[in-house]
Amino acid sequence: MAAETATLSVRDALRAELDAIRAAGLYKEERFIHAPQGAEIEVEFPAGAAPRKVLNLCANNYLGLSSHPEVLRAAHEGLDRRGYGMSSVRFICGTQDIHRDLERRLTEFLGTEDTILFSSCLDANAAIFEAVLSDKDVMIADRLVHASIVDGMRLAKAMQDTYKHSDMGHLEEKLAEHRDKRFRMIITDGVFSMDGDLAKLDEIVALAKKHDAMVFVDDSHASGFIGKTGRGTPEHFGVTGKVDVITTTFGKALGGASGGCVSGRREIVEMCRQRARPYLFSNTLASVIVAGTLKVLDLVSASTERRDRLEENTKYWRRLLTEAGLDIKAGESPIVPVMLYNAKLAQDVARDLFAEGIYVVGFFFPVVAKGQARIRTQLSAAHTKEHLDRAIEAFRKVGKKHGILGKTKNEIVEKYGL
Amino acid sequence: MQTRRTLEVPLPERLELSGADRELLVATFQALVALRCEKDRRWDLVQKQLEDDGWKVRWGLTWRAEAKRGDDYEEATGATLDEALAGVAQLVRFDMAGRAP
User: Fold this and answer.
1) A99-135: b or e for each residue (b if 16 or more CB lie within 10 Å)?
2) What Cα–Cα distance (Å) separates residue A319 from each residue in A64, A110, B15, B47?
3) Interface membership of B101 toward A (CB under 8 Å)
4) pTM, full prediction
5) Which residue of A68, A115, A140, B51 lies most exposed, with the fewest beta carbons within 10 A?
């Protein structure tokens, strides 16, 4: 009886919290997609509605490989030749030849010394700091790093510190402040997922050399398409081989399924194999994903055609939005945020665009900082110019309805508030 | 009932106690009393057990800072008040920034 009372009380408390989330307009609802991932998808929204064909501008499918026929074929073959699951962690009986092959291929692709696979990049980020650093060390992170890095840092015993976003002067102050520590690790995203801006990796590497620090980069929003041959931000900034640790995902440009890795200095990777808890205590990456990712690496290594098309699409889309009078974050990555500042406005614009056949999502606090609500559009090599022309027409129509075309931040804030 | 025993510490003339001073004095005396007279005194036993298991145990008093805002909560400890507050500030700073998936 007591247990039943306690259960009810927990339910009541959680229901109250969920109600509060709904009342604040922060409740996340899933949209059901009745198709493989692609530039155009069929979406059931709201739940129970007939699926509608919409143009997808919110996937991380940067290279359009999520449903590529060659990747599908490789995954099918992987399934047939290596089975569905391994029922084991890597170090007991969960490592197949193709896991080793993928680690070697990633090492080659990223220009590092060694690589270790994880079930996700979130796992890689949760693993690395605790495995490599101790209480004698310090982690100095950009203040806008991905949530999984924050979680990984919290799990580690090393001291935590931060520097203002992309502020190299502040980073140098911090490096000097922590000169007494055994190891200093500078931690940054390669491409920041919120604004789509790139870390100043060349300057970071120079500061690391000057202050004898390590450099960690999460290149999840870069691997496969940033840099002339898609090797990521180290290639873009000419510092390939000079970054100590790269983490990345196979869940975005590199096929879009799941999985991730830590790639970098041989000893760091070896230490992860000995100590990283998500590696030691969680199942091996499924063989079907390994086989698919190997094919993705074949495709992106053989040709830059997809990343080149993505770059063209990005430039074209940024130009269209600017000409339409929308307020976008400047940059060069295929993450193009359309700034609306007000949370309700972001939700209303996203809803109206969906009605026009354009699938985008409004982001607002706590997903982005307060007063920074926006619609994050994301380009893909799978988009055609016709797709983008259709999308901009919808943005113009909806933008006109809400009176935001040609308006500055101050004018939008004055009209809608923060 | 035992007579309550008190210890008076004369303060220098013209010394104005701040809130932090009072907090420190209270904490110091509480720590003294806890260390000497705490009921059941388990800490020295626990320390011995840990040392018997091969741990080198070091303990001491520390500053603790906490920050609450709505449902958000962070806490940090440090050897100095500065260190504890800086720790909380770091954790809060991570939470203030938005994080897109």
Assistant:
1) beebbebbbebbbbbbbbbbbbbbbbbbbbbbbbbee
2) 21, 31, 68, 67
3) yes
4) 0.92
5) B51
Nearest to A144 among B90, B91, B97 (CB): B97
DSSP H or E segment with residue B83: helix B81-96
Question: Could you tell me the pLDDT band of residue B21, with boundaries at 50, 70 and 90?
Answer: confident
**Two tokens, residue A361:** 């999502």
Mean pLDDT for chain A overall: 96
pLDDT value for B7: 78
Shortest distance, CA B99 to any CA of chain A (angstroms): 5
C-alpha to C-alpha distance for B3 and B16, rounded to whole angstroms: 30
User: How far apart, in whole angstroms, are the C-alpha atoms of residue A310 and residue A381?
Assistant: 4
Residues A57-68: what's their mean pLDDT? 98
Among A197, A201, A175, CA closest to A188:
A201
pLDDT value, residue A2: 56
Q: Is the pLDDT of residue B51 over 60?
A: yes
* B100 interfacial to chain A (CB closer than 8 Å): yes
Among candidates A143, A363, A376 on the partner chain, residue whose Cβ is nearest the Cβ of B97: A143
Predicted confidence (pLDDT) at residue B69 exceeds the cutoff of 90: no
* Total residue count of chain A as it appears in this document: 418
The two structure tokens encoding residue A268: 């760091």
Please, what is the angle between helix A121-132 and helix A147-155, to 10°? 30
Question: What residues have CB less than 8 Å from A389, skipping those under 6 apart?
Answer: A320
Tell me: pLDDT of A393 over 80: yes
Token pair listed for A94? 């969960």
Tokens representing B74 are 């962070």
